[in-house]
Write a structure and sequence with these properties.
By secondary structure, this protein is mainly alpha-helical. The chain is built from 17 helices and no strands. It is globular and about 60 Å long.
């Protein structure tokens, strides 16, 4: 509301043409409407109503407000500074939690830390994985400033901030956040330098990691031939994924209904309330189980349109841009767009390993700001 109100309090402004509505906006609206419609036959209508009322509709309005703002260099810099400062404060709280071996929130994580050989922190977040996701996205923004900066002072400050944030991320022990960060860094490298070379290096790293897992399963405590070993290594997510696939196979076209995964999973697996889950920890499987092929098609279309909008024209260096593009686009725009594109890719990867895509305000924020910055310069 403040994002909409503050510019209008500055006095009358010249009449501006309405922002063009593209396919991304249409599919986002369709996703919200479809989720609401499929709540009609859900076995957990209350959950679906909560999702729509507290997440989808407010965040859709957030997207609209952010895409209407004029994102100036000063506004971008202020938001970046607030974001980094907030992340550093949260990391400091995480350091205190680790030093005192006590958590402020989430009894489940507190109980887990008492029986495990490791200690995970979540700062002021309820979930260490969501905390790790936030830190990973902030680190990508700082990394974008680092690789596009031409001043030594900025490089040094960015490197120090990255070191502190990396230490905070390590204490989360969030494997999904580590994977998200790596994916975002690959995107940043591809946008900053040669995309083909960056992707080749990333593929080589993945191949080496896979070879280590296959050749030395005992060393990494992961036996790919054992479903029990995979499930233990993924903190029980393999069973959730299997259950989600089976639920999707029961009603492949329209799914079990919005928000019904938890209840239907407990019904099918005869699981107790202690094993209650809200999702399969893999968003495509959750969408397929709850919304069927129809919802999965909308989800894939949304990803394709979002990536096309955020990645098209982003990245590059002054030496690689044509004189016309370099003259039209200000210097600050390239790292800003690259950071948003990398952060969105990282967030999507995180949702494939954890949960919460359209339920996360960061998804809508990145799309809204990214859409505003992707508009051709006047």
């Amino acid at each position: 509301a403040l994002a909409w109100l503050v510019p209008r309090l500055r006095g009358p402004r010249a009449t501006e043409p309405p922002r063009a509505t593209g396919w991304l906006e249409r599919v986002l609206g369709a996703a919200v409407v479809l989720y609401a419609v499929q709540a009609v036959y859900s076995s957990d209508t209350g959950k679906a109503v909560e999702q729509v009322a507290f997440f989808y509709v407010p965040f859709l309005l957030l997207f609209v407000l952010l895409r209407e703002l004029d994102w100036t260099p000063r506004l971008i810099a202020r938001c970046f500074a607030v974001l980094v400062a907030l992340a550093l404060v949260l990391v400091g709280i995480g350091f205190v939690e680790y030093q005192q071996r006590t958590l402020l929130l989430n009894p489940k994580v507190i109980a887990s830390n008492q029986v495990e050989s490791y200690f995970r922190v979540n700062s002021l977040f309820f979930d260490p994985n969501v905390y790790g996701r936030f830190l990973a996205l902030v680190m990508l923004a700082v990394a974008a400033v680092l690789v596009w900066s031409a001043t030594r002072r900025t490089v040094v400050l960015a490197a120090v901030a990255l070191a502190v944030l990396w230490a905070g991320l390590l204490l989360t022990l969030s494997q999904s956040s580590f994977a998200a960060l790596l994916a975002g860094l690959v995107v940043l490298a591809a946008l900053r330098w040669r995309a083909r070379r960056s992707l080749a290096i990333a593929a080589a790293v993945v191949a080496v990691g896979a070879a280590v897992v296959v050749a030395f399963p005992d060393a990494v405590r992961l036996d790919l031939s054992s479903s029990e070993s995979i499930n233990r290594a993924t903190s029980g997510r393999f069973d959730l994924m299997e259950g989600g696939i089976e639920l999707a196979a029961e009603r492949p076209v329209v799914g079990q209904g919005s928000g019904a995964f938890s209840k239907e999973y407990r019904r099918r697996e005869s699981a107790s309330s202690e094993r209650a889950v809200s999702a399969s920890h893999t968003i495509p499987i959750t969408v397929a189980a709850e919304q069927g092929v129809v919802g999965l098609a909308v989800y894939l279309a949304l990803l394709a349109l979002a990536l096309a909008r955020l990645l098209r024209g982003a990245g590059g260096s002054p030496a690689r841009r044509s004189p016309l593009v370099a003259e039209a686009a200000p210097a600050w725009l390239t790292p800003a767009r690259a950071a948003i594109a990398a952060a969105f890719v990282a967030l999507v990867v995180h949702t494939w390993l954890y949960a919460a895509f359209l339920e996360d305000p960061l998804s809508w924020t990145l799309l809204g700001v990214g859409t505003a910055l992707a508009r051709p310069p006047e």
